[in-house]
């Protein structure tokens, strides 16, 4: 979720954010299986080994994406000027080891992107 729940992301932003987050996942030796989002949030399905701490991965995903998005899209600054942060401090992570991957893919794909 974006800081202050500002509705800031367009398809262009989300496409670039997906590239950035795929790079971060690769650096962690994890796999970003699905990515989607809306104008103020993103959904990720990440496959990662037990040696990776979810909190460290999330902090890196949020930190790197915030820094790069602010550099590449300076117009985003008007939405986070009060805190100089793109993301809120919270996130949700769930384990889905028993769920069929097709169900997870379908859920992420159905999350609407803005026009």
TrEMBL record:
UniProt name for this protein? Putative transposase
Which residue numbers delimit the Transposase IS200-like domain?
Answer: 1-111
Stored SUPFAM superfamilies: Transposase IS200-like
The cross-references to Gene3D superfamilies, in alphabetical order and at most eight, read:
Transposase IS200-like (3.30.70.1290)
Q: Kindly list the GO molecular function terms attached to this UniProt entry.
A: DNA binding; transposase activity
Q: Which GO terms describe its biological process?
A: DNA transposition
Lineage here is: Bacteria, Bacillati, Actinomycetota, Actinomycetes, Streptosporangiales
Any Pfam family the entry gives: Y1_Tnp
- InterPro entries, alphabetized: Transposase_17, Transposase_17_sf
């Amino acid at each position: 979720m974006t800081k202050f729940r500002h509705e800031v992301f367009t398809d262009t932003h989300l496409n670039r954010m997906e590239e950035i987050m795929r790079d971060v996942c690769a650096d962690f030796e994890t796999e970003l299986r699905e990515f989607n989002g809306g104008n103020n949030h993103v959904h990720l399905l990440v496959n990662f080994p037990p040696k990776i701490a979810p909190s460290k991965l999330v902090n890196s995903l949020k930190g790197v994406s915030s820094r790069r998005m602010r550099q590449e899209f300076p117009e985003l600054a008007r939405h986070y000027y009060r805190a100089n942060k793109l993301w809120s401090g919270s996130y949700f992570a769930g384990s889905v080891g028993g769920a069929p991957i097709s169900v997870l893919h379908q859920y992420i794909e159905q999350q609407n992107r803005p026009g």
